[in-house]
Amino acid sequence: MAQYEHLPVYKKAMDLAVYMENIVKGFSRYHKYTIGADLRNLSREVVKLII
């Protein structure tokens, strides 16, 4: 197990990334590929910054 995987902030960031993926699935086609892509990328960036 990596050193960061037990951190509460990492777990919350992963929860956020999964939540954003699920939310964006429900967006209309236009928003899914504009604001949805931005939301997904930014939530993944939070996880990357912790790692």
Strand content: under 5%
Q: Tally the helices: what do you get?
A: 3
**Terminal CA distance:** 13 Å
Number of E strands: 0
Radius of gyration: 12 Å
How many domains, as an integer? 1
Global outline: elongated
Q: Spans of 5+ residues with little confidence (pLDDT < 50)? A: none
Mean pLDDT: 94
Question: Strand-and-helix sequence, N→C?
Answer: HHH
What structural class is derived from the secondary structure elements? mainly alpha
* Helicity, as a percent range: over 70%
Largest sheet: none
Features:
51 residues, 0% strand, 75% helix, mainly alpha
Structure description:
This protein is mostly helical. It has one domain (8-50). It is 75% helix and 0% strand. It contains three helices and no strands. It has helices at 8-25, 29-32, 35-50. Helix 1 (8-25) packs antiparallel against helix 3 (35-50). The longest helix has 18 residues, at 8-25. It is elongated, with a radius of gyration of 12 Å.
Quick take:
This protein is mostly helical and 51 residues long.
Topology:
Layout: H1 8-25, H2 29-32, H3 35-50
Helix pairs in contact: 1-3
